[in-house]
Q: What sequence folds into this?
């Protein structure tokens, strides 16, 4: 099972955790200064190192061999960045569970990423560190003893480490308490961003928390800082959900109606889905709805995205068709045993 | 099974048919000029005629022995009028199927009514006629050879006959073609009235067609006239529903979403129900929804009415409670095998 269908620790609030290192290989310019031949050379280093790939169950997949829908579906699942698509010769090293996904020839030569459902930053950091060490035995990273790891963009220099956590904060958003929290977070060198749409507003009530600074701090400090703010947000969101229970029946009605529409509509847009999934997710954890479990909801969340939807049905769909097929995939998933 | 849960002929458009005779008994003033003792005397005539009641499986139920919720539920099912509740001593003669319901001491001494699901005016007229004849053997009706049967209100003098048909006309209402039809009907001595709310507008798209005139025409002519206009309305409504299929998918989506809300809400008002049931009813007959059949929908329609709901749960409910229990009875009915 792919990691993103699962639920993890503190799954009522934390959707997923992600850690990554930015690394570059000695003897090569940064990717934006490499021609296709040199970029291919980098890919070949990894393709030829069967032993290293086998250790983590990784396969090398070149983006030039993927159709557009497959590439877009990887972006939708946050496994790769849009940047990677622009490279003249890029690839990913990915395992079956898809919780390890290393981008090759994105902004940096390597973007080693490890993912998990739920709140698992320390555990996945261990895995990341291990991969980083093993890769470091086969290639020599660009490293400066004063600055640390060197990266294409100065914002990643030092540790090259980014830790991000995706949070579901419907109650804090509905109670308008989130803006104050975002201000505080900014002073703690933490970014909080709405995961859909512009700015901090988020139709699906999803927020991504990540560290701003990668230099002058240790990875341990970054993890502790993220752990600290996320733990507080979890507590605050849980309190706020308890407050919502003052109008329990109205909330239960609202959530179940949204499920009723989600499960019966014949045409449905992605904006609608985001809103419904958010309420139903909260409802499942608040025990206000029992007609669907979190794994099916996660599955609906993934397969109703524009590219994942087309990948599911194996064909290109116009925007109008997508709204119809989106309703069909929901039906399929709900009918699964 | 009570007749009103069934579906009858032309059930896609015709909910129910009803015929009634207004009759008064010789030797008694009209009910509004009778004291309680005299009114009781009338009830006793029927109570003591076991043979007559047995012939049609009728039981005499005195309204003074009924609680308020039971009385109100009979009004909601259109089996009795609100007028009957105001009488100092009234009763109904009713059979198990409830398709025969004779009001005693309403505006007239007898209001003999026969009901059916669907479009069945000629068949139920036969039954009505038969009952009228049999009752006429036991009591002497007030009759004048010039005017016909005499009634308390002049509008019923003559035949004392009223034939009414409940029609479901969502497509004609949505296309705004109904107003013109109502004008034409008025010139044909036919009343068309919205069955809910004021005037001709009807949130549930329900319309009652009945004859205006009871004198100077035969019962056969009244029936033929009603048959004629109802048949035309059936044809027009079916045509208009076909027109709606130009946007089949949107209609299917709309209907199924309404079903989704109806079947998942935890709080639901009666106005909402009327609208949803109307669309779902049309959807069932247009084969745009297959998750519910017409009998369950009819059952939901009945048991979500204010008094029927309280009768179902066997307790008095405040308006807020009713909205919650309404959602529960829907769940119960949908879960029935």
A:
């Amino acid at each position: 099972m792919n990691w993103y269908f699962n639920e993890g620790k503190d799954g009522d609030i934390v959707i997923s955790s992600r850690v990554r290192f930015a690394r570059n290989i000695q003897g090569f310019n940064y990717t934006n200064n490499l021609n296709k031949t040199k970029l291919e050379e980098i890919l070949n280093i990894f393709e030829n190192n069967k032993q290293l790939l086998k250790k983590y169950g990784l396969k090398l997949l070149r983006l030039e061999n993927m159709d557009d829908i497959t590439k877009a579906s990887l972006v939708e699942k946050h496994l790769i960045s849009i940047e990677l698509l622009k490279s003249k010769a890029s690839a990913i090293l990915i395992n079956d569970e898809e919780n390890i996904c290393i981008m090759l020839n994105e902004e940096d030569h390597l973007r080693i990423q490890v993912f998990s459902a739920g709140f698992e930053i320390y555990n996945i950091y261990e895995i990341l560190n291990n991969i980083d060490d093993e890769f470091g035995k086969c290639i020599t990273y660009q490293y400066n003893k004063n600055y640390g790891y060197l990266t294409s963009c100065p914002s990643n220099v030092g540790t090259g480490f980014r830790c991000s956590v995706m949070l579901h904060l419907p109650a804090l958003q509905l109670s308008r308490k989130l803006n104050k929290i975002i201000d505080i977070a900014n002073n703690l060198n933490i970014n909080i961003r709405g995961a859909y749409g512009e700015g901090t507003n988020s139709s699906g009530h999803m927020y991504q928390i990540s560290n701003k600074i990668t230099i002058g701090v240790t990875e341990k400090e970054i993890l502790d800082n993220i752990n600290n703010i996320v733990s507080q947000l979890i507590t605050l969101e849980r309190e706020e959900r308890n407050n919502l229970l003052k109008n329990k029946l109205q909330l239960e009605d609202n959530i179940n109606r949204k499920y009723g529409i989600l499960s019966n509509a014949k045409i449905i847009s992605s904006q609608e889905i985001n809103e419904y999934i958010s309420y139903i997710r909260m409802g499942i954890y608040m025990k206000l709805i029992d007609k669907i479990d979190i794994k099916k909801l996660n599955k609906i969340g993934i397969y109703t995205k524009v590219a994942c939807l087309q990948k599911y049905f194996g064909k290109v769909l116009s925007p109008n068709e997508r709204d119809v097929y989106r309703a069909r995939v929901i039906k399929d998933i709900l009918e699964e045993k």
User: Anything to note?
Assistant: The two ends of chain A are 16 Å apart (CA to CA). The first strand of chain A starts at residue 14 and ends at 23. Residues 197-201 of chain A have pLDDT under 50 and may be disordered.
